[in-house]
Design brief:
CATH superfamily: 5'-nuclease
Order of helices and strands: EHEHHEHHEHE
Structural class: alpha/beta
Number of strands: 5
CATH class: Alpha Beta
Strand order of the largest sheet: 3-2-1-4-5
Oligomer: single chain
Strand content: 5-15%
Number of domains: 1
CATH topology: Rossmann fold
CATH architecture: 3-Layer(aba) Sandwich
Distance between the termini: 48 Å
Number of helices: 6
């Protein structure tokens, strides 16, 4: 059995009914994600994962944040990403982990940076897109 590393975006908790948590895999996120979670069931999942020590909160490196910001700017996506989104992507880059997110903009930047990603509920993008100002 291959153990995997995953970095979770807020959408992984919000769409938790479709999230598979496997024993032995490692789950990470940034503390800012906790602030984005508002509903009771998502908060409940977060608390259960924290209590079981299955979820680890880490901060990404400054270098990874700069790499993500540069890629997002190049793709025209920077204005569609929150600071939390950038940190989550940067953490996935640092850990060489799979990003779990239903956010298509985050998936697009992940694809550009070679970060593997999975969706929870909404599906995955099939190709990278560049956006330009109108």
């Amino acid at each position: 059995m291959v153990l995997m590393k995953f970095v979770l975006d807020a959408s992984a908790f919000i769409n938790a009914s479709a999230l598979d948590v496997n024993e032995g895999d490692s789950y990470y996120t940034v503390s800012d994600v906790e602030e984005e979670i508002k509903d009771a069931s998502s908060k409940g999942l977060l608390e259960r994962l924290k209590a079981s020590k299955a979820l680890v909160f880490l901060s990404p490196s400054k270098e990874a944040i700069k790499i993500v910001e540069k890629a997002a700017s190049r793709l025209g996506s920077i204005r569609h990403l929150s600071n939390t989104d950038i940190k989550v992507l940067a953490l996935a880059l640092d850990l060489k982990a799979t990003l779990i997110s239903d956010d298509f903009t985050m998936q697009n930047v992940a694809m550009d940076l070679g970060i593997s990603f999975e969706a929870v509920l909404r599906g995955k993008i099939k190709e990278k897109k560049r956006f330009r100002k109108i």
